[in-house]
Amino acid sequence: MRVIVSECLRGVPCRYDGGAKPNAAVQDLCGKVEVVGVCPEAASGLPVPRPPAEQRNGRVFLRDGRDVTAEFRLGSARSLAKVQAHPAPLAVLKAKSPSCGVHLIYDGTYTGKLTEGEGTFARLLQEEGITVVTEEVVEKCKPSVEHPVAIVLGSGLGHLAKLVKPVRRIDYHEIEGFPDDAMPVAGHSFEATIGSIDGVPVVVYPGRIHLYQGYSASEVTSLVRHAHHLGCRDIIFACATGAVEGNAHMGLGILTDQINFTGRNPLAEWDDIRDVETPFVDMADAYSPYLRTIARGVADDQGISVEEGVYAGVLGPCFETAAEVRALRMLGVSYVGMSTVNEVIMARALDMNVLGLTLAANYSGDGSVTHQSVLAEAEKHAEDFEKLVRGVLRLL
Ligand code: SF4
């Protein structure tokens, strides 16, 4: 996988003060991917060191008052040309910079205040469709013993749990909020494993309960809160779905967004939820663009066939009617399933980074689907699914 990275984050002394701003998480990532290093300000021909610059009303000024907007635009254009010669799906840029900043930049008053906006170079990359994040996102997604990656597995995908080098096992029934009477359905197991996969700390939940079994949204999201209590910041949800014909094919998919058609929401069960600060949770980019792009890169590198699309969560347990499939297709839905959406809401309420992976084991509305056919289809893709998850863990 190729990644565009601000040179100063790699340790190159190109900042205004002649120094660098090395970031350990970014440097670690750079050791695992092919890097396209960029410094738009140096590319503009501005000297190192130089007076600090900030953006005000879309223009860039040095602290001494000089308007260097033209230089910044030139440096950004030159850096973009370098990127276009070496295309990459992901950029990690230095936060807050008037060139590299993403969503928030210094406001031109030299007081440390930030304003909404993009750096001149960050904006060009976004226009190219490149996922642009800051070093803060890379740091926040980096797993450790204190912050293992949670992995919640759905029907037919539980075999991944066998990859874990275990340290401790936890019966789901010991988890606060998990219903005492819940028993696993075929293909699931109700024992979480804390350990590691290829040296990456993980907590794997090899099965889940569903709303259609009569459980509340609070109960079905208890595993997410448990993962959060254990320190997990990244959470990978894997689920079996039906592909909406015309929008997706059967096989592996990366979830890009979701529509919650279950009619339930764990944040509406406010008496049961004490872990989140507010129920009014921002669900834009619910599925982390950074993690999605990493997953896409792993799939492309390893030749794994993976599509991408929107997931619609329905209550179930019956499958979709022909009219419902037509409606879902018109709404741009690629995958339909009976889990995940409430869990993702809970995870976002807890500020966790979400990656959604699916195995579309049948076509939505295809009357021949059975639990056995789902397991059989999952088996066909088990190796690719495993490679995909291991590849993502390796890059985090
Ligand atoms: Fe770092 Fe970007 Fe500024 Fe260069 S332009 S010093 S890469 S933040």
Distance between the termini: 13 Å
Q: Give a short account of the largest sheet.
A: 5 strands, mixed, barrel
Percentage of residues in helical conformation: 25-40%
Q: Can you list the ligands bound to this structure? A: iron/sulfur cluster
Q: What would you call the structural class? A: alpha/beta
Order of helices and strands: EHHEHEEHEEEHEHEEEEHHEEHEHEHEH
Low-confidence stretches: none
Task: Kindly report the average pLDDT value.
Answer: 94
- The number of distinct helices, counting runs of at least 4 residues, comes to 12
Shape: elongated
Got a strand count? 17
Q: In percent terms, what proportion of residues is strand?
A: 25-35%
